[in-house]
């Protein structure tokens, strides 16, 4: 009987899943979020702040079959940024929804939403006027 040991052919197993984010750990904490572009500054995404434990990109190791992924979920309080304005209302630069006095007049609507495009892209990630 011949036995072959392939353990030396791949990277070592990752360490430090219990303390992610430390220098000695091969793992880090990561939370998806929108960088505050849409008015949310608390790293909430779709109503909750989700934090995942993942392998650091620069570490050459493998996770192993026994690794159970850790996910931390914290619900977020709703803010004004979580809602859209109602029909015939538009969001001002300050974040409040204001009524459009004459919705059938396109010039009034355009003047209400026309802003500095560069500043809007930097703050919101989009602008309304082409």
Topology readout:
Elements: E1 27-30, E2 48-55, E3 71-75, E4 89-91, E5 97-99, H1 106-113, H2 117-124
Antiparallel strand pairs: 1-2, 2-3, 4-5
From the 3D structure, determine the CATH topology of the largest domain: Complement Module, domain 1
Number of strands: 5
- CATH class division of the largest domain: Mainly Beta
Approximate strand percentage: 15-25%
Largest sheet data = 3 strands, antiparallel
Helix content: 10-25%
Which CATH-level-2 architecture of the largest domain?
Ribbon
How far the N terminus sits from the C terminus, by CA atoms, comes to 74 Å
Mean pLDDT figure: 77
Gross geometry: elongated
- Radius of gyration over C-alpha positions, nearest whole angstrom: 24 Å
The helix/strand series, from N terminus to C terminus, equals EEEEEHH
Report on this model:
With 130 residues, the chain is of the alpha+beta class. It has 2 domains: 64 residues, Ribbon (Complement Module, domain 1), CATH 2.10.70; 41 residues, no CATH class. The protein contains 2 helices and 5 strands. The strands form 2 sheets. The protein has a 3-stranded antiparallel sheet with strand order 1-2-3, with no helix packed on it. A two-stranded antiparallel sheet has the order 4-5. β4 and β5 form a beta hairpin.
